[in-house]
Amino acid sequence: MKAIRLTMSQALLKFLDNQYISMDGVERKFVRGVMGIFGHGNVTGIGEALENDRGSLQFIQGKNEQGMAHAAMAYAKQKNRLEIFACTSSIGPGALNMVTAAGTATVNRIPVLFLPGDIFACRQPDPVLQQVEDPADYTISANDAFKPVSRYWDRISRPEQLMSAALQAMRVLTDPVDTGAVTLCLPQDVQCEAYDYPLSFFDKRIHFIERRPVSKGALDRAVEVLKRKSKPLMIVGGGVHYAMATKETIAFAEAFGIPLTETQAGKSAVPWDHPLNMGAIGTTGSLAANRLAKEADLIICVGTRLADFPTASKSAFQHPEVEFLNINVSSFDAMKMNAHMVVADAREALTSLTETLGAEKYNGSHDIVYLKGLKQEWDAEVNRLYGLSRDDGLVQTKVIGTLNSFIGEDDVIVCAAGSLPGDLHRLWRSRKPNTYHMEYGFSCMGYEVSGSFGVKLADPHREVYTLVGDGSFLMLHSELLTSLQEGRKINVILLDNNGYQCIHNLQKGHGSDGFGNEFRYRSPETNRLTGSYLPIDFATVAKGLGVKSIQVHTISELKDALAAAKNETQSVLIEIKVLPGTGTNGYESWWRVGVAEVSESEKVTASYQDAEQKIKIAKPF
């Protein structure tokens, strides 16, 4: 057997450089490169291999391990999970910085390969710098923290173990059902150890994504359910994007007059102005969608995890005979809400359903005039919110409306946390697929700037805008510098509302007077954070990194700043001071949070009683 002698790190890179993926007959390179920050736990191992690698993998220098991993996730998400970057770090704190990003990737079902350095397998120099020691189990290191948030986890304790581990890693990374974070822990001595690897290990490998067809039994059951229901409603999830089933989704709805609603991940799959698109559903839903959800006797869920937001904590569906028909490639998701399961690829299932129901002359029973009226009412409400003004400052919904009017239909917006995701879900008007990039599975603060860099790597010819609050920006914005380094222009739209106002509003909505969420000075009188707001100049912070920065205080200034930013060739930050509490709320929705059963506050006690009543009308499972 022919072999080549390589270090484990060199072999890993050579292997990754020869992985390809094929879907619908289109073949593409799967691993595009490695993002990394070097320390003693990886610089002389995988660092040496990257320095002297003669393959096609691109190395990108991160500035924060969590940030670069978020960028890698955003890249894979924007590429519909068909291309990835790997992420390497040193041991200890560098590795642990990536755990949050691993959780973000796994919750969102996005493939990211994590390659954290690890302690010495030989144990001779133990305890090494940054080693976590467990007196009861010497095999544990900081990297064991990746286990709960990884879809596959392994530690390469011998160089020859790489071969089986790498193949398992590719199995998970390319699986539409099981994908997420994959972690291969690389002890720093093993990274440098050599082995005679078979040349066949480095052969070009094509990983085929096969569309799972719907079984005859599942199709028959789905048709039977649809035929005995009169008011079906569709929920379009992120799986519609990954299955590239946007056309089939629209065709199914049009064929049978079924209204559509969107999750955060599914948004932009259907143009906002399509007559059957009723907008966002659930806790951050539109009035049109939430009213239809209450009336529907069948909820057709396509490619969605059915988390608490689209279901309004399982309270959105109030018809006494409502049933669920879940189309999902994952049986884990297809069984949720006690649904009739169609475990299949979204495109395949919708195509088969459309053909079968069409042959049987099926048609929905929705009143088209009623649907038109609901949509017109909601469109008018969005227009009203987009036009709101106040004399004492900028209203958040008007700022969003101004952005929506300016940003092109092919441009991409990126967001993740705070009050902005709810407003964008309800209000943003998307026309084309993959132009609304929302990380709302983990809703990880700090994803926004890093994520926009990853999106720009994936779609370099589009303008990319990240909408981020002051709280999220403060948590993580290091990859703004990486965007300059790589020449990948991003537009950071920073809405400063003086703190964690989303949670401040949530808190006040459940009986609190507000505590610990606004960026205020400590007051000598109360010894609490009740003083004046902290005056933070975010534009100057970004300017110090070399970013073109603009501060605006009026809508006219915002329009001028957006026009100027579009003509820039490098990253831009526009800081906008907005009035706290000027987002959206309500629209016949609910979100369950824990409320104190006993409290000195009568308002908290009343909120608890209100929550108990809402729990009674929510579905138990």
Any idea what the radius of gyration is? Answer: 25 Å
What does the average pLDDT come to? Answer: 97
Give the helix level as a range of percent.
Answer: 25-40%
End-to-end span in angstroms?
Answer: 56 Å
Instruction: Give the oligomer, counting copies of the same chain as homo and different chains as hetero.
Output: single chain
Give the strand tally: 23
Please count the helical segments: 23
Structure in words:
With 621 residues, the chain is an alpha/beta fold. 35% of the residues lie in helices and 19% in strands. It has 23 helices and 23 strands. The chain has a 6-stranded parallel sheet with strand order 5-4-6-7-9-8, with helices on both faces. Strands 14-13-12-15-16-17 form a 6-stranded parallel sheet, with helices on both faces. α12 links the parallel β16 and β17 (340-343). α3 runs parallel beside α5 (99-107) and α3 packs across α17 (447-458). The longest helix is centred in the middle third of the chain and has 19 residues, at 368-386. The protein starts with a strand and ends with a helix.
Brief descriptors of the model:
six-stranded parallel sheet; alpha/beta
Please specify the SSE layout and strand pairing.
Elements: E1 3-7, H1 8-16, E2 19-23, E3 26-29, E4 31-36, H2 46-51, E5 58-61, H3 65-78, E6 84-89, H4 93-96, H5 99-107, E7 112-118, E8 152-155, H6 161-173, E9 181-187, E10 194-198, E11 205-209, H7 216-227, E12 232-236, H8 239-242, H9 246-256, E13 260-262, E14 277-280, H10 287-295, E15 298-302, H11 308-311, E16 323-328, H12 331-334, E17 340-343, H13 346-359, H14 368-386, H15 396-406, E18 412-415, H16 420-427, E19 436-438, H17 447-458, E20 464-469, H18 470-475, H19 479-486, E21 491-496, H20 501-508, H21 538-544, E22 548-552, H22 555-566, E23 572-577, H23 602-617
